[in-house]
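seq as requested:
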Amino acid sequence: MAMDKEELKKKIMEFMEKKSGAKSKIYLKDLQRAIPEASPREIKNAANELVREGKLEYFSTGSTVMFGIPGKGQPVEQKD
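struct tokens:
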């Protein structure tokens, strides 16, 4: 059964806030483990929507993409 998107976005943000003290960037797999009742696709779509809303940001290590809360941890390089 599909989880309500707004409820899922709330769970993602709660997890990110809770983890932001220890880790400022979170892998998509970490979100999937933290919210097992939602499908990986639902989690990815909700996280991408949070990025579009400005509540999360992408962080690329070159080989993988992580999610973080804007302003926490290592800053994202801005391209001119």
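The first helix runs from residue 5 to 19.
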